[in-house]
């Protein structure tokens, strides 16, 4: 019998639940996966989570595009701080950086 997915799902939800430091500033913790570097997928997920926290989801705004460049490796021993720039909130869509 395969292992239950519940522990994995709850770990993922915890990893994507960021600490809000200020209105547009968030801190995410890293999960040790056996390397000294942060997994890029974690960074993408946390960045998207931070951006989504600054958008009116009740108004139906959901992410539909994400672009990223990995300019340097993240250190698993240090939290990552996400500073969201509210570039635009228009009538149909929002832009975050």
CATH topology: Thiol Ester Dehydrase, Chain A
Based on the coordinates given, report the CATH architecture. Answer: Roll
What structural class should be given to the helix and strand makeup? alpha+beta
Uncertain runs are none
Taking the sheet with the most strands, its summary is:
3 strands, antiparallel
Oligomeric composition of the shown chains = single chain
Radius of gyration: 15 Å
Explain the overall architecture.
- The mean pLDDT is 92.
- The chain is 25% helix and 20% strand.
- It is globular.
- It is an alpha+beta fold.
- A hairpin with a 4-residue loop joins strand 4 and strand 5 (94-96).
- The chain contains two helices and five strands; from the N terminus they run H-E-E-H-E-E-E.
- It has helices at 6-16, 40-52; strands at residues 19-22, 25-28, 80-83, 86-89, 94-96.
- The strands form two sheets. The chain has a three-stranded antiparallel beta sheet with strand order 1-2-3, covered by helices on one side. A two-stranded antiparallel ribbon has the order 4-5.
- It has a single domain (6-96), classed as Thiol Ester Dehydrase, Chain A.
Question: What topology emerges from the helices and strands here?
Answer:
Layout: H1 6-16, E1 19-22, E2 25-28, H2 40-52, E3 80-83, E4 86-89, E5 94-96
Antiparallel strand pairs: 1-2, 2-3, 4-5
């Amino acid at each position: 019998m395969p292992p239950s997915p519940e522990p994995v799902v709850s770990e993922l939800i915890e990893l994507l639940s960021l600490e809000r430091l200020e209105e547009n500033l968030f801190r995410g913790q890293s999960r040790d996966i056996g390397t000294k570097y942060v997994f890029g997928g974690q960074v993408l997920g946390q960045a998207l989570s931070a951006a989504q926290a600054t958008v009116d989801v009740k108004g139906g705004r959901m992410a539909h595009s994400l672009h990223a460049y990995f300019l340097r490796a993240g250190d698993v021993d240090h939290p990552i701080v996400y500073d969201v720039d509210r570039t635009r909130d228009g009538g149909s869509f929002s832009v975050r950086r």
